[in-house]
Amino acid sequence: QLQLQESGPGLVKPSETLSLTCTVSGGSTSSSSHYWGWIRQPPGRGLEWIGSFTYGGSSFYSPSLKSRVTISVDTSKNQFSLKVTSVTAADTAVYYCARHPPWGSLEFWGQGALVTVSS
Amino acid sequence: EIVMTQSPATLSVSPGEGATLSCRASHSINRNLGWYQKKPGQAPRLLIYDASTRATGIPARFSGSGSGTEFTLTISSLQSEDSAVYYCQQCNDWPLTFGGGTKVEIK
Predict the structure, then answer these.
(1) Quick check: A65 contacting B, CB < 8 Å?
(2) How confident is the model at residue A103 (pLDDT cuts 50, 70, 90)?
(3) How far does A15 lie from chain B, in Å, by closest CA?
C-alpha cells in the first residue's frame, strides 16, 4: 500500500524559505505513470493545489505561487520536496503531499504537516 | 484557470436523510472530477473519481453524477460520521482547482 509522509520545520520566519519533504513508501517517485504533488490548506480555508510533477516529464504549478515555488525529486531516497521562497503569514497552512494519475484525482495523501510563518 | 463553484456552503441534515451537493465548473471538464471528504485533523479522502466512480473502500451511500460543467455528490442515508467538508476538484486541465467546499452538518 502506498504511503506518503511529509516532514520539515513547523515554524518558518517571514521572508525565509519554507522547505518540506515527502517520503514515499510502497511506490516509486521514478514512475512516469503518476504525478506527485503538493496541496495546502490555510487555517479555516479550503484546499489549494500548489503544484505537481512526473518523473522525467513536466512540472506544473499554481499561477498564484509559480514565482515562489519549486518542486524537486530525489529518486535515490524516494522523496520529493517543496520549497516556497519569501514566505509571509499567508503561507501558514497544513501542507499535504499526494499522488495522482495523469488527468486523475488525488488518490493517495500524506497525513499533512502544519507550517506556521511567524517571527 | 477553471473555477469550481460549490453549493450550498453549508447543509444541515438529519441522520438517515439524504444530501445533495452541487459543483459547477466554469468550463467543460468532461468527467474529470473528483470529490473529497475532509475532516478536521485528517487528510482529505478521495470519495469519487471520474465524476461517478467510487474510490476503494468508499460506502455505496456515496454516489456521484454529472459531466461537462454540472456535477452532483449524493449521500444517501447520512450517518454521523459523514459530518465533514466536501470538496470537488477538476483534473481536466492545469492548474488543478478545487471548489470552496460544502460543510455537511448532522442535526
Answers:
(1) no
(2) confident
(3) 26
> Per the omega criterion (within 30 degrees of 0), is the bond before A101 cis?
no
Residue range A50-71, pLDDT digits in tens: 999 998 888 999 999 999 999 9
| Chain B positions in Cβ-Cβ contact with residue A43 (cut-off 8 Å) | none
Q: Say if A67 is an interface residue toward chain B (CB within 8 Å).
A: no
Q: Which of residues 29-48 of A touch B (CB under 8 A)?
A: 37, 39, 41, 46-48
Q: What is the pLDDT of residues A25-51, one digit of tens each?
A: 999 999 889 999 999 999 999 999 999
Reported in sequence order, the residue ranges of A11-68 that DSSP labels E, i.e. its strands, are 11-12, 18-25, 35-41, 48-53, 59-61
CA-CA distance, A45 to A49, in Å (whole number)? Answer: 13
Q: How many CB pairs under 8 A join A and B?
A: 64
Neighbours of B41 (CB within 10 A): 8
